[in-house]
DNA sequence: CGGTATCCGAGTCGATACTG
DNA sequence: CAGTATCGACTCGGATACCG
């Protein structure tokens, strides 16, 4: 499998002496870490842009506080773009940057691992029809 | 690129209505989440097995408490295997299970993203093109 | 050698109330 | 509509001390 080959290659890099203090994997995990971050990125994947209220409706359990805070974090990290329209009524549009969209392959790889080792059914009623 | 294609495929799954409450990606992220987890998995990748003291030496800043606790968590999650030898002197050997080793492709994909968007050397804002 | 027990500070998450 | 401010519960990680 190609992926395994590349993973082996990566292992070799690790073995070559990559320090763990400035580990890019850990840093990325910390970026993704946070109860709502992936959920919000998910939602923003579905459309070219999304308004605050739309996100709030899509994520019924999130509070305004958390939505704002997470959105700000993601914006600061360069993953989400915020565009404000000061018309009447005012509104804001959130969208994913290229950096944010590039997270999709990562999510996909995680998803594959989860399917295999966490179990497809435990992972929810995904559209695994006949597959 | 093949990976992009599959990621697109995955996006379609998400769009198909995958709920976010039982999201496998989030669950996996929570498994990986923890200051020392990836570091320990890293170390265990380097050798077929590793003793407690070896791990402690490889991760100088970790305390016994955290090492034990993280190892136990990882064991409970089926990622790490613990084998105890009650000889004199007694010792313990830790190793990665297949489930644990299968995390490598995930790490690799995260690593690729980090290289590109976190920058190989610095935490720069990545190659943002007019997207 | 390979841990366990306990305490504590810092950070995360959520509820509530209020605003331009 | 799209937030901000504040407070408290809970969890995580680290320090310290001790054990089979």
UniProtKB/TrEMBL annotation, chains A, B:
The yes or no answer to whether the keyword DNA-binding is present is yes
Domain (HTH hxlR-type): give its ranges: 23-122
Known PROSITE patterns for this protein? HTH_HXLR
Supply the alphabetized keyword list.
DNA-binding, Transcription, Transcription regulation
In terms of InterPro entries, this protein maps to: HTH_HxlR, WH-like_DNA-bd_sf, WH_DNA-bd_sf
Superkingdom of origin? Bacteria
According to UniProt, the name of this protein is: Helix-turn-helix transcriptional regulator
